[in-house]
Predict the 3D structure of the following.
Amino acid sequence: AVVSTQSTGGGYNSGAPANYNSNYASFSSQPPKQYGNEETMQKQKLVEDEFRKREEDLERRERQLREEQKRLEDARVYGDRVPNFPPLPHFFPCDPCVYHNIDFDIPPEHQLSVRRVFYHWQFTVFCYLMNFIVCFGMICKLGTSAGSAFGLSLLYAGLFIPLSFLTWYRMLYNAVRTDSSLRYMLFFFFYGFQILVSLFGGLGIPGGGFAGWITAFKTMEENKALGALGILVSMAWCANCLIAVYLIMQIHKTYRSTGQSMEKASGEFAASAGSNRNVAQAVLRSL
């Protein structure tokens, strides 16, 4: 039988099921499914992370370039030996005073000795500061009777800390760096003075500005806590003295092994005095 393609009303009949159009309409009204959304988001996150890393890397390189530019500017002003000690924060109103680099300036065979003396200088700074703290506690707890000790301890801390660096540690540093007998002799003189100061600090004569043994035991009678701190400071000064004696013996061995002598130091002094016209004229006038 022949299936008619015309409807009774004269319209066109495709011969499809009756519910085909409704299914097609419902299918076409749904939004298309999005495939790969999670993968796209992961790729986008990776791109953002990579961009952030590149941005941080550019900031780091820019910071390094600024630091390098500052270093070159300092090198233009000071030469290669740009002051770097003491290491001060950027917001501090003062700048470092001297160039200090044991690994660069000091020969390898002498670096250990110089570094030990540097550590001893740091320990000496600690002793001065602790001595000041104990004397400050004494004037707070005991009143004006400890006024002289407090004033002298403040003077010692403010004066002897920088002088100790310049007169004996820096003197040894430059002596080893330049192989100078004259600087070695000056180091022995000032370091010997430091040994006497440490001995005096450990003794602790009352009113002398040091919280040594005598002052510590006297303070113990009135305030046990301050007395105990004074005993710790006394032990620190005694250890400081013993360390200094050991180190000066080691440096003297180095001094003798490198061919240094009093005659060489005298020759260096004569050469430096002769090169200074004012000193030479003063010597001539004194003759």
